[in-house]
């Protein structure tokens, strides 16, 4: 039986998922959260995009880890994500319009990439960006080896001396609690958040929305009533229907 979804190697970067055939297809780069590249959730989401006609590239940017343990997000060079995005844009199966989708820490990274590329006038910015459960400020470094649930005797706050991101070899402008200047990005933007998110408050997305409106932007914003940081099954259905509609419209 022929496959409806096929895997293709993006040379030097990893696997993509997309419809069978020669394409080109509207493309999306996916950015995972603190679960890390090995967890596989971004690959699941890529398959969902592929089933609806998109070429999806789940980019694993976390360092270390393995199939049983997440890696870390410490001093990750955001410039490398710009290179990965350019590689997808140049891929022979990708159409001329390419989007970006991030979840949680991946949402933070997507917003940072958009604001930094716009600020520094770097060509090749995403044609449309969607983020779920985003923060509105830069967050600290994350190392899964030290993570404990709240209430665990070993729980401790993040090490404030460590940084998650670098840009052009520097932490400047990327210190924790620094507002993410997403209002610099002029393209279509999708924001979503569960109203009962216990990890990152929905107030973060509300602040992003208000700042964007203040600067004359018109983001597409969705609040999922009663949903946590990761939506339930019904919430996932609602989220992906809206997400696919957004990318179908803009890519």
Automatic annotation (TrEMBL):
Domain Peptidase S9 prolyl oligopeptidase catalytic: start-end pairs: 141-251
GO biological process terms on file: acyl-CoA metabolic process; fatty acid metabolic process; proteolysis
Stretches of the chain forming a coiled coil according to its record: none
Superkingdom field: Bacteria
Keywords: Hydrolase
InterPro entries per UniProt: AB_hydrolase_fold, Peptidase_S9_cat
GO molecular function: fatty acyl-CoA hydrolase activity; serine-type peptidase activity
SUPFAM superfamilies, sorted: alpha/beta-Hydrolases (SSF53474)
Keyword Membrane tagged: no
Pfam hit, one: Peptidase_S9
Protein name per its UniProtKB record: BAAT / Acyl-CoA thioester hydrolase C terminal
Protein's organism: Vreelandella subterranea
Higher taxonomy: Bacteria, Pseudomonadati, Pseudomonadota, Gammaproteobacteria, Oceanospirillales
């Amino acid at each position: 039986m022929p496959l409806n979804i096929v895997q293709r190697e993006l040379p030097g970067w990893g696997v993509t998922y997309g419809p069978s055939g020669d394409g080109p297809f509207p493309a999306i780069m996916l950015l995972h959260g603190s679960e890390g590249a090995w967890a596989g959730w971004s690959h699941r989401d890529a398959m969902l995009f592929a089933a609806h006609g998109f070429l999806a590239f789940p980019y694993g940017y976390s360092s270390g880890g393995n199939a049983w343990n997440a890696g870390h997000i410490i001093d990750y060079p955001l410039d490398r994500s710009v290179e990965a995005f350019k590689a997808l844009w140049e891929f022979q199966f990708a159409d001329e319009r390419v989007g970006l989708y991030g979840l949680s820490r991946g949402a933070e990274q997507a917003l940072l990439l958009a604001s930094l590329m716009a600020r520094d006038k770097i060509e090749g910015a995403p044609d449309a960006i969607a983020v779920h459960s985003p923060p509105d400020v830069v967050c600290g470094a994350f190392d899964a080896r030290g993570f404990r649930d709240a209430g665990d005797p070993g729980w401790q706050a993040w090490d404030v001396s460590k940084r998650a991101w670098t840009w052009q070899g520097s932490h400047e402008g990327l210190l924790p609690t620094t507002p993410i200047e997403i209002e610099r990005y002029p393209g279509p933007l999708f924001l979503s958040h569960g109203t009962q998110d216990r990890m990152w408050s929905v107030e973060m997305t509300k602040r992003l929305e208000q700042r964007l409106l203040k600067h004359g932007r018109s983001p597409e914003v969705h609040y999922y009533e009663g949903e946590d940081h990761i939506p339930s099954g019904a919430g996932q259905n609602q989220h992906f229907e809206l997400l696919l509609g957004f990318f179908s419209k803009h890519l």
